[in-house]
Structure formats: structure tokens, C-alpha cells
Give the backbone structure.
Amino acid sequence: MSQAFFLILFIFLLVESRLPQDIYLDYSVALNAEQDIDLDYPVKFFFQLDPLIWITSFISGHQWTTGFGWALGIIILTFFFGRIFCGFICPLGTLHHMASYIRPALKKQRMISANQKHASQKFKYFLLILFLMAALLGLNLTGLLDPIAFLFRSLALAVFPGIGTGIKELLDLTAQSDIKILNYISYGGEVLVSPVFGYGYKAFTSAWFIGILFLFILFLNRIRPRFWCRTLCPLGALLGLFARFSILRLEKNPEKCTNCNLCVLSCQGAASPVPGQEWDASECMFCFNCFNSCPEKAVVFKLGWPPHVSKKPDMGRRAVLGGLLAGLSFPLLGRLDGRLHHVSDARLIRPPGSLPEKDFLKLCQRCGLCMKACPTNVINPTLTEAGMAGFWTPNLIMTQGYCEYTCTLCGGVCPTGAIRKLSGKEKIETPIRIGSAYVDRGRCLPWSGNGPCIVCEEHCPTSPKAIRLIQGTSLSPAGKKVNVKLPYVDLKSCVGCGICEYKCPVKGKPAIRVIAAGESRSVANQILLEL
């Protein structure tokens, strides 16, 4: 019941991490500088429950993040009751628990062998040490494999958009039918599906890879039950360090044991519950399956101060040394491309309110919350734009959407403060610049003499407009002089919102494009405008 409740709550908050439904269809009117939009539900709740996100953000960013008192509470509970977060709360753990039941039929002895503690379980300590060491050196990589960030990113950027696209294509097909009842079903289905899976056809770069990785991780449960939790989860490794002090302990009675091995078969963590072996509190997920399955009640959980602390987690010297070396190497290698110490890639356009790049990479968890909340689908995970150190961090792709002039949802949902929370008024009046637009005269219809066009000027939201039209002449492809209105960009007024690029009628490679130059967050990336 607990697992089902928290999984449903996680999916509910994921669905609700978007512009409120009542203004979604008319957000261009509803969003204004006088009234800030806040989400109706605490969509950051599971991230605030996550001790690993809190600790690595605190180590790398050197600041306390609002709301992470919940994570401290989880650590205190783990001290007293072991890894109950893994067994009762973690939504990704619940999915792996469910997937573990879908496995080929194995003989009892093979099942017992698969459910024994394995040397591969040390690997999660390698990952934990890697992330902690990298955070200490100023690069936060935790969100790549943290269970909450991993699950949110997978569902929000791949699974839900994939399901939504499939359903909408089916509804579009029925809408083309001459049968009225099918038309009604299509229209009604669109109303029901869109609030859950998003309006239009959501698309994110590398979503296919994110989705395949998620399915592959689930498939690993066919090799060993809860493979992720035992072998890959860095949060489970962290909680295992605290769980050895738990006052909720497994007591064994070897005299009652009949060696049926039912406790081993049902154990989710391979924590050696069978009498005659030393129970491993750092691997136990406190699912109580061993107690429930034992017909002789030879294993029982009891509360009480232990006479001695449980044995240390079996990390392995190689895992520790390898984690330290990898954690030292990743931040250093990530700086070799010059993206931190020199001007970044012109394509790297961060959301409004983003911290300077070096500080941004200390806090960003690559969770996808800002991407899910963005109403225009402009925020996408990076690939090469931010270098190795910035893989899967947020980036604005203006051909896919644009930054709504008064929208500040991305900063409102960021769980660690990598994107500052802004008011609409602050965003406009400061103003917060995320880049600058420029006209590619060779592709622009008026400049190239191929026809009149004022689309970019019409849609420019700034006041005064950053895109202005000047009467001039241009040579047509036939060599004739034609009178046209030529667009110019006033860099003093441009904030880089990208609506001009998004609306440009020249498709493929728009005739007006936005680059990161001039962004407010970077002193090194400013454009000198003084004459």
C-alpha cells in the first residue's frame, strides 16, 4: 500500500508539473508581469526527500537549499529504521519490484543462487564515491543516476511523450473518419489525453536514448531481482551507510530453521536473511518478505538497541579507489573542452535565471523538471552544447519553441536553485537576457529580395521592440530593385526569447536566429554596445 501510494503520488506530481490547466490554452494572455503563476502542487517534493541530491548540492554549491529538511528527516529515519525509503517510498524501487516478478521460470536452486549476495553489489558504492568526489570538486553529476532524477527524466522526457504521441496519432486517425461517433471519440479523447501527456506533440532531444536506457534498466531485473537497487543505485548505497546503525533489526533462530530457503527466495536486497549467515543491514530494504515467507518464524524483526553496530558495508577496495579516481577525473576532464573557463558554445542558451555556468553545474541535477514545466517545449537536454560536464543539462532550442516573455516556471520548479526563481516583473524590468538574435541576410526574405516579410517584428514581445523595420531597397533574384521593409535587431532591447526564430517562415534553418552572446548571467559573454 505504501509503495503504491508513493508511486501514484510521484506520477501525479509529474503530470502536474506544468502550467495550470485553467490557463494552459490561453497562457499568452494569462501570463503577465503583474501576476506570477505558481503551480498548484509541490512538484519538487520527491527531490526534497532525496538525501543524495541534498548532500551533493550542499557539497558542490556550499548552500542550504530550501525544502531539503525532508531529506534530513529521511536520514534520521534511516538511522532508526534502516532503508525504509528504498522499501516503502522510492517510486523507482517500486517499479523494479514490480518488474522483478516478470521473469523466466527458474528452478529453485537457480533462484536461490540469483538471490544471494553478489560482488556486483559493490558497484553502487563506486558510483556513490564518484558522485561525492565530483561534487567536492565542483561538478554535480548525481542526477545522471540518482533514482528520483533518473525516473522523473525518463518518464517526463521519454515515456509519457512516447505514449502521448502514440495515442494522439491514433486519435488523429479516427478524426479523419467519416463516421461521426469516431470523430466524437477523437475530440473527447484529445480533451482527456492532453492534460496528462501534454498538448501537441512533445519532443525532446535524445529522448529515444533516455527511453531505451530506462527500459534496459528495467530489463536487468530478469537477470537479478531489483538489479538497480542492489547494484546501481547510489542513493541506496548512501542510505546503506546509515542503515547499519538501525534499531530495527533482524533476529534469527537457527534452531527453528528447516533450511527451506524461502527467506532467501523472497529477499529483495540479497541481505543474507537465512539463519547461519550474518545479516547485512546495509543491503536490507526492510520489505519484511523474509519474515512473512518463513513458515517456522525463524527470522523476526524487532526494535531495540543492538549490542553492537552491524558490520560495515562491503564496499571493496577497488570500488573505493576506483570511485575516488573517477570522481577526481570527471571534473578535471570536463574542464578540458574550455566551456567553463572560456566563452561557451553559442548554441548553449540556458533558461532565464540560470546561474553562471560554473555555479550552474554545481547545482543542476539534470532531472528534467524545468523541461517538463516549460509550456512551449523549448527547454531540452543538452548533448554536446555544454561539453561532457554539462551532459543532459537544460538548453533552449528555439526552432522547437520559445521562452514565453513573462513565464518563470522553470525557476519555480528547479529543486536545487540552479535556475533562480524570478518574478515576471523582475524578468522583464531587469531585464533578464538569455541571448541575442541576429538576422541571416542571405536567408531573410526581405534582405535577399525574395519577398516582403515582417513576421519577426510582429511577434517581438519587448517594449520597445527589439526588432525594427526600416524602409529600404533590395535586389530581387531577377536583378530588379524592390522596396521592402528590412528587419534590424536592436541588441540593447533584445532578451533572446527566440520567438522570432520560432515563428520565422523560413524553415529548416531560420533566417533569424538566437545565440547565447549577450546573456545576463555571463560577464565574459557580453556584447559591447557602447559607441
